[in-house]
Amino acid sequence: MPRDILHLSTGELTPVEPREKRPEWLRAKLPSGPNYRELKQLMRSNNLNTVCEEAHCPNIGDCWERRTATFMILGSVCTRSCGFCAIDTGKPPVYDVLEPGRVAAAVAHLGLRHVVVTSVARDELPDGGAAIFARTIRAIHRRVPECSVEVLIPDFKGREASLHEVVSAGPEILNHNTETVPRLHRRVRVQAKYERTLELLARAKEMNPRMVTKSGIMVGLGERRDEVAQVLSDLRVARVDVLTVGQYLRPSKEHLPLERYYTPEEFAEIREEGLAMGFSHVESGPLVRSSYHADEQVQHLQREAV
Fold first, then answer.
1. CB contact set of 84 (below 8 Å; sequence gap of 6+)
2. So what's the architecture of 30-305 in CATH?
3. How far is Cα 179 from Cα 184, in angstroms, rounded to an integer?
4. Contacts made by residues 51-56, CB under 8 angstroms, sequence distance 24+
5. Would you write out the chain's pLDDT as a tens digit for each of its 306 residues?
6. Burial degree of 302 (CB within 10 A; 0-12, 13-18, 19+)
7. At 298, is the secondary structure helix, strand, or coil?
8. Which residues neighbour 169 within 8 Å (Cβ) at sequence distance 6 or greater?
9. Domain ranges, ordered by start, for the chain
10. What are the start-end ranges of the H helices in the chain?
11. What values do phi and psi take at 255, rounded to 5?
12. pTM, two decimal places
């Protein structure tokens, strides 16, 4: 367990990272290949953002070469300052009302069968950006009817009307991440609330019982295994269908310290625990992120429904 350095002059504690090197199982594929280069050019030419780039996702090389990406709408500057996230915090610029059409055009160009759309938090907007989410969902469905849409949404500060606007647009999957256990929530997600997250997920399922709901957590921030189990139980009470569990990786020294690395065996145990609780699908592994292999998750759920 890492210790903190106490500065006697200021009384402040500076976290120290674990001394062990990053394990072999956390080595991701370097971004390269023709599909990666084509997708990057497509994003730049259409003035589109991806959470893959902005959040420094370790899977960008793997996913982009497989022609899958998570579009990030409403700009690349977030109004929140979560302790784990690499996305810039500040005052966002005015959003582009034509962005939904450009996202739909990119989805059509790539020939996607499943697409994930997320956003930065836009707490300064009256609806938190819900209208743009809804327009993007509808634009994709109109342009590429055979493509399923997964949205990874912020909490909209608990506004039920904003959630209803997104759900009414008909996404096949609605995802909102829990991120961590209640004890660490205030430190990890400064402007969010654990109870609000559970309420949003439960409300979404009530608004459309046929819609798949999804949530995810990170491990390695100092949580205990019994606390992880409690989060999984709480998510099942909220009727969440799909769970993702991944290793927290510190983006920089300014972000929350990494407490420890979980082993592949521990991730496998969490997966089995989640399945035993009744989740329809559990994606649990060191490099798992919210949208990691999201297209394969949809295929799995479709097979299960047959």
1. 179, 188, 218, 221, 248, 250, 251, 255, 256
2. Alpha-Beta Barrel (3.20)
3. 10
4. 51/87, 51/118, 51/152, 51/291, 54/86, 54/87, 54/88, 55/85, 55/86, 55/87, 55/251, 56/86, 56/251
5. 444 433 333 344 444 445 457 777 666 555 556 666 666 676 666 666 655 554 455 555 555 555 566 788 998 888 988 887 777 889 888 888 999 999 999 889 888 888 889 998 899 999 999 999 999 999 999 999 999 999 999 999 999 999 999 999 999 999 999 999 999 998 999 889 999 999 999 999 999 999 999 999 999 999 999 999 999 999 999 999 999 999 998 888 888 999 999 999 999 999 999 999 999 999 999 888 877 666 666 666 666 654
6. exposed
7. helix
8. 133, 134, 135, 137, 138
9. 30-305
10. 34-45, 51-54, 60-65, 99-110, 130-143, 160-168, 182-188, 194-207, 225-237, 264-277, 294-305
11. -95, 175
12. 0.81
Structure tokens that stand for 300 in this block: 């799995």
- Kindly report the length of the chain: 306
- Return d(Cα 128, Cα 243) in angstroms, integer: 25
Joined together, the tokens standing for residue 210 give 């046929």
